[in-house]
Write a structure and sequence with these properties.
11% of the residues lie in helices and 39% in strands. By secondary structure, the protein is mainly β. The strands form seven sheets. Strands 1-21-20-19-18 form a five-stranded mixed beta sheet, with no helix packed on it. Strands 2-29-28-27-26 form a five-stranded antiparallel beta sheet. Strands 7, 8, 9, 10 and 11 form a five-stranded antiparallel beta sheet that branches. This is 6-bladed beta-propeller.
Length: 387
């Protein structure tokens, strides 16, 4: 009977894999450069207002909604801007020990519930949610636990109005747990264990997950050297995108004590998003991630685009801005409407203008740089992918 059960389970897994054939993205087989004209139909620029109350650092994180842009200096200040004009509206921080305040930080990955316009902050044993329009605390989600030990890490991703999903800490990974589904009271309704994963197990320890919804299904990627994107099925976790990076067998879960030189040529996947035609992603080489590459895979033509060059003093290889003749666009995320957003590094753009003037720029590009100052806040770029 046990053998029969195992055979049935194996057959189910093979059928699931056949029906969900993953995309293969081979990073060692691309000579294609990448530009905005190749990927996008529409480009929108939003210069964020610079005031003494809001000053953004180069590595800031962003969320873009229908009406707003949320920008945050990680673990520090968070600001709200008007999406259309870029005008600064207010700060969103409520750090403190009061009942409507949080005691850790605003979540910079998977922290915004776009349907409800609620931004979550990490507290001690809960997440507190703040309405980005009013700044008021409007929601509390208790962190799930087993035997009073909190097990999920970083952020809750909303499946519906009262169900969330998150990955577990390394302590519980050792016990076979991988993902848990829970409600606002922290009650766990579903557990995904090691045996529920079809393919390589990339969830065997602490790590940040990037969740996204696409065509009614839920996907996640784990940030790190183990490069996979998975679909969260009802019973199984299925491989969806396999990145062939050429990495050596140095799991990012065992980096403690390994010299940085040992991973200097390893590819570290930092972010993944998906549209009907493209898989957008960003990677860095080495553990320090000092330089990143903003890439895209064309699902229709099976082409992989990797940027070949930088402009001026940029530290990142972004999407070449052949639309308006500006410096390249550095990826930051993708919203529920399928819009990809990134930033123009204003310091790099200022240096580029000093060296080259307005040569090759469109009229729109010339207007953007006409009053540019090196210490201005970034210019957010919002792009609609080609079909």
């Amino acid at each position: 009977m046990k053998i029969f059960f195992c055979l049935c389970s194996l057959l189910y897994s093979l059928l699931s894999l056949a029906q969900n054939k993953p995309f293969i993205v081979d990073l060692e087989k691309s000579n294609e450069d990448v530009s905005l004209n190749i990927l996008f139909d529409k480009i929108e620029y939003v210069p964020l207002e610079t005031t003494p109350e809001c000053f953004l650092k180069p590595g800031a994180y962003y969320y873009v909604t229908d009406k707003y842009i949320v920008a945050m200096n990680t673990f520090w200040q968070t600001y709200l801007f008007d999406r259309k004009t870029g005008k600064f509206i207010r700060g969103l921080d409520r750090e403190g020990g009061g009942p409507d305040e949080y005691r850790r930080w605003i979540v910079y990955l998977n922290g915004l519930n776009e349907k409800r316009n609620i931004l979550y902050a990490n507290d001690i044993d809960k997440w507190k949610g703040y309405d980005i329009e009013t700044g008021e605390m409007v929601d509390i989600i208790k962190k799930p636990s087993i035997n009073n030990d909190i097990i999920t890490v970083f952020s809750p991703w909303a499946i519906n109005s009262n169900q969330y999903i998150g990955n577990v800490s390394a302590e519980f990974c050792k016990k076979g747990y991988r993902l848990v589904v829970f409600n606002k009271q922290g009650f766990i309704s579903k557990v995904y264990k090691k045996e529920n994963i079809l393919g390589a197990d990339v969830l065997s320890g602490d790590g940040l997950l990037i969740f996204y919804n696409y065509k009614g299904k839920l996907y996640f990627s784990r940030i790190g050297f183990n490069a996979m994107t998975y679909e969260v099925g009802d019973k199984q976790i299925l491989p969806h995108i396999i990145f062939r990076t050429g990495n050596k067998e140095i799991p990012d879960l065992q980096l403690d004590g390994i010299p940085s030189s040992a991973v200097s040529d390893q590819i570290n996947i930092l972010w993944v998003g998906e549209s009907d035609r493209f898989i957008f992603f960003k990677y860095a080489k080495g553990y320090s991630a000092m330089t990143t590459y903003n890439c895209a895979f064309d699902k229709k033509n099976k082409k992989l685009y990797i940027p070949h060059s930088k402009k001026a003093c940029e530290s990142h290889y972004g999407y070449t801005n052949d639309t308006d003749g500006l410096t390249s666009v550095i990826l930051r995320g993708m919203n529920k409407n399928g819009e990809v957003y990134g930033v123009l590094d204003v310091q790099a753009l200022s240096e580029y203008v000093k060296l080259n003037g307005e040569r090759g720029m469109s009229e729109r590009g010339k207007r953007l740089v006409s009053n540019l100052m090196e210490d201005d806040n970034p210019i957010v770029v919002i792009a609609t992918p080609k079909k």
